[in-house]
Structure formats: C-alpha cells, structure tokens
Amino acid sequence: MTTLYDVRPAAVIGGPDEVLADDQVTAFVHEALAGAGLDGRSVCVIVPDATRSCPLPLLMRAVHGALTGRVSRLTTLIALGTHAAMTPAEIETHLGGDYPGMEVLNHEWSDPATFVHLGTIGADRVGEISNGLLHEEVAVRLNRAVVEHDVALVVGPVFPHEVVGFSGGNKYFFPGVAGQEVIDLSHWLGALITSSDIIGTRGITPVRALIDAAAELIPAEKLALSVVAQSGTSALHAVAFGDTRTSWEAAAAVSAETHVRYLDKPVQRVVSVMPPKYQDIWTAAKGFYKLEPVVADGGEVILYAPHVTHIAAMHPEIEQIGYHCRDYFLAQWDRFKSVHWGVLAHSTHLRGAGTYSEAEGEKCRVQVTLVTSIPEHIVRGADLGYLDLATFDLKSYESDPDTFVVPNAGETLYRLADH
Questions:
Q1: Is the Cα dihedral 187, 190, 194, 195 positive or negative?
Q2: Residue 13 near residue 24 (C-beta atoms within 8 A)
Q3: If one looks up domain 262-416 in CATH, what number appears?
Q4: Which of 363, 322, 357, 372 is nearest to 343 (CA)?
Q5: From CA 327, how far away is CA 348, in angstroms rounded?
Q6: Is-cis flag, bond preceding 175, omega within 30?
Q7: Measured between alpha carbons, how far is residue 369 from residues 141, 256, 316, 319 in Å?
Q8: Which one-letter DSSP state was computed for residue 86?
Q9: What is the pLDDT along the chain (419 residues), one digit of tens a residue?
Q10: Per-residue confidence (pLDDT) for residue 2, from 0 to 100
Q11: pLDDT by residue (tens digit) across 234-249?
Q12: Residue of 193, 129, 153, 179 whose CA lies nearest to 67
C-alpha cells in the first residue's frame, strides 16, 4: 500500500536514498488525483520535452488511468520553452504511446495566436523582486490551453537549474509555455545574478519569485506531480503532489540531496560527456553550468558531444553575438539591448564568470571548448574553443589526473565541499 505523508501540505512518496517501484508510483498518482477534486473538470497536463530525465510514460499512464472517465476534458501540453517542436513520432515515444480521449499539443511558442494576455507585473514590483537589478514592467502571456482548462496539472522533474535555482513547479508555465516577455526578463535576471551564484540555490530566488508572481495571474487551479529522477535513468527517487509551490518545494529538497555532488578541491579540466537528449549547444550547455563551480581559475570545460551539429537552430542570434561573460554585455548595453535577453542570458551562462573593460578586453575565468560535429569556423566564430572530433581521444583524458571526466553530464551539479 502506498504511504502518504504531508509536507506543507504536499503528499510525498520516496526520498533521497530510495528508488521507487513502478507500482508504488502508479498507486501514489491514483491516490493523489482521486482526492484532488477533479471530477467533471477540464484538466491540462503540462509535461517537459525530451531534454529532461523522467519516466514520463510511467507517469502519463498513471495520470491517464486516474483521470479518464472522471474529467470533462484532458489535454497534454509539451512545455518547450523556445526549444524545437517534437514530431508526432517523437511525442509518441516520449509519452509512451497514444492515449484515447486525450489531446496532445506542442507549445507553439513562435505563433502569437498561441497566447493569452493575463496581465502585467509592474516595474516597481519587478524592482522589488529583483532586489533592484531590474526596474521595468513585463507583460505576462501564457499558452491559451492552460487558461482554457479548469485545472493545470504539471507533471515533471526537478533538478538544479542555472537560471532559477531548482527547476520545476511554476517554471513549467514560465518559461515552459510562456510568451517571450517573461522568458527574456526572467533569464536576464538570472544572468545578472550569474549562473554560478544561483544554480542549486534552495528556496525562493529572485527568478523564482518573478515566476511565482506571473503564475499568480493564471486563472486555472495549479497542481503538480513533481518528481525527482535518478539522473540518466527511468527510475524515481521521489514524487510529490500538491499545488505548484508546495509540491516543488518538497521535490527540490530531495533533489538537493540527490543531484548535488561535492569535490574536495578544484579540478583543472573537466570533460562533460553529453548524452544524446541534448541535441544542440543551447541545451548541451548544461554540461558547463553544472561543472563551472568546481573548475579552477584558468581551467577548462570541454563539452564532448559528437552528435551535436548546431549551436542553436532555434536561436541563430547566438552565432552572431557569440558567447561572452555578463560584463561584456553590460559594458556595451546600447549595442546588445535589442537582442532577445534570453539569448544574451544563454550566452553568459555558457561563458561563465568573467570581466570586461574597453582597455583590457574580456577575461573569462574558465575556457570553454567544444568537441562536436559543428564546423570549426562556426565554433570559433562564436568565441568558443575547438578540438577536432576526429582526433579527440577521450580515453587519454580519462587517464589524465588533471582531468575530471563526467559521463551523462547535464543534470548533476558539482560543487566544492567548502563552498
């Protein structure tokens, strides 16, 4: 029998040292949703795309089984943010099959008709949330599928995250199925704080506070099945059910113990071996974000991703501006302020900590080098280091005492033990 216990007041099964059986997960989902007051109501299920480890077929079978015949309408919306749309074949694999009576939608973020305007967060409120880093109003637009259902049910994993601290919860709305305005503002706020300072931060970070403020404008009831995945596998450590705040808080507490590793001293070089779920540098950059904190000054992060052929097919601007530290953009703001701030943020997140002045130029703390199938001139044109895939010998790095090789990189955060 599934045991439930309350965590302010989320119901939770599992924990940092547990691996749940499929039948435990299914029973928990059925029991949780049975008591959620969903009968006769319309439900929009918001799920991640394939760039996150999560046994989504298991969860979707449980959710579909628990809600079919009880709710008036059931829709699943894939939270792409600004990632590429999934094909029908990819969606079927991702969700684990077809589900009778359930409509499945990609978040069509490039189509203005996708969105409903929910309201505006004023400049003074943004200034308060951001601790004075930003002071401007932001329009809040959201995928109309969420607004046109009675209940929005988030189903997805929680990991340390470079923009918000820990992913999950209301982040599935913003930026998951949001308009560009909140995406740009929230990501640039994270960039101003810097990835290395915010990643893996527990509690309500300024970016999380901005996302939560936007989520308050959603008319639908907001619930979440927040899961903590065993990274790189289809297993789960824990599942939490509640509203999108309490469920996320419970899962983030478990993620902080399962997805953070500590090293005793800095390493000179990291090789992040990127799994195929990261299909471009826009997503594979997580292999840098999660390792930057343990790299010594003047060190290097090598992203080893032979399958990657593009920097960012959905965001070609990044090849034009290149990768630079935060101060590079701030010192030349008039030149760059018209570029989507989400693109600028991604640039700073991958380039990491650094300084810039007109007299001395840009000095970044860590070198970033790609070993991919992207042509050399494109890599170097984006201000990144290049190593030839054809001659790269991973085994030699694995035997090098100055190199830390990380398989399946991108989800586990590495930190120094004394920080």
A1: negative
A2: yes
A3: 3.90.226.30
A4: 322
A5: 9
A6: yes
A7: 37, 28, 19, 15
A8: P
A9: 233 333 347 999 999 999 999 999 999 999 999 999 999 999 999 999 877 788 999 999 999 999 999 999 999 999 987 777 889 999 999 899 889 999 999 988 788 899 999 999 999 999 999 999 999 999 999 999 999 999 999 999 999 999 999 999 999 999 999 999 999 999 999 999 999 999 999 999 999 999 999 999 999 999 999 999 998 778 999 999 999 999 999 999 999 999 999 999 999 999 999 999 999 999 999 999 999 999 999 999 999 999 999 999 888 999 999 999 999 999 999 999 999 999 999 999 999 999 999 999 999 999 999 999 999 999 999 999 999 999 999 999 999 999 999 999 999 999 999 76
A10: 35
A11: 899 999 999 999 999 9
A12: 153
DSSP states along 327-368: HHHHTTHHHHTTS-HHHHHHHHHHH-SEEEETTTEEEESSEE
Check if the beta carbon of residue 403 is closer than 8 Å to that of residue 268: yes
Cβ burial 74-101 (10 Å sphere, 16+ → b, else e): bbbbbbbbbbbebeeeebeebbeeebee
Contacts of 233 (CB under 8 A, 6+ apart): 53
Q: State the Cα–Cα distance between residues 409 and 390, nearest whole angstrom.
A: 21
* pTM of the complete model: 0.93
Cα-Cα-Cα-Cα torsion 400, 403, 406, 410, nearest 10 degrees, comes to -150
Q: Residue by residue, what is the 3-state secondary structure of 274-310?
A: CCCCCCCHHHHCHHHHCCHHHEEEEEEEEEEECCCCC
What phi and psi, each to the nearest 5 degrees, are found at residue 13?
-125, 140
Q: How far apart are CA 69 and CA 39, in angstroms?
A: 9
Is the separation of the CB atoms in 175 and 182 below 8 Å? yes
Q: What residues have CB less than 8 Å from 23, skipping those under 6 apart?
A: none
- Chain region(s) in the chain for CATH 3.90.226.30: 262-416
Question: At residue 104, what are phi and psi to the nearest 5 degrees?
Answer: -120, 130
| β-bridge mates for residue 46, sequence order | 77, 154
Query: For residue 293, what are its two tokens?
Result: 């904190």
Domain at 5-258, CATH class: alpha beta
Rounded Cα distance between 142 and 265, Å, is 44
Please enumerate in sequence order all residues whose Cβ is within 8 A of that of 175, keeping only pairs 6 or more positions apart, or say none. Answer: 81, 82, 182, 183, 186, 187, 342
